[in-house]
Amino acid sequence: MTATLFYILAIVSVVGAIAVIAARNPVYSVLCLVVTFFAIAGQYVLLNAQFLAIVHVIVYAGAILVLFLFVLMMLNLNRESEPLQPTLIKVIAVVSGGMLLLTLVAALRGVDQIPLAGVQDTQLGLVKNLGRLLFTEYVAPFEISSILFLAAMVGAVTIGMRSKSDKREIINHL
Q1: 85 backbone φψ class: left, alpha, beta (φ>0; ψ -120 to 50)
Q2: Which of 16, 55, 105, 142 could join 35 via S-S bond, C-beta 3.0 to 4.6 A?
Q3: What is the pTM assigned to this prediction?
């Protein structure tokens, strides 16, 4: 039962991720991203990481996607105003994507398959254990990521300003 549910969620997440890339309308792309995020949250639940699943839904499906929609509405993307990309840019994108695929295949070639059935640790994924690890072993990456999020928020506010005088006023207050 768990293996079947895993495969269903994996197929939904991969199809959703492909739909994010293939969608012509950016709003449809964001909606496909919601489906992908919920499928990944379901996989977290299967791994007995309920806290991570809930945080994933709250942070990504909630806050990040609202930010994406805000940026899409602010940019007002019209097909008539989009410049056509030169062929060289498209060729470079395909070559770099192919090199990334080749690197991923080479990295995963020697990996052993993890058996699906086995003894599950019931203490794995609990909030108490996660908090202990987060604030002992991984405190430096946790703090670095908080600085990155702060820089992203300042950048979003700066981009959202309408005039140069508003930007100068915000910078002067910092």
Answers
A1: beta
A2: 16
A3: 0.55
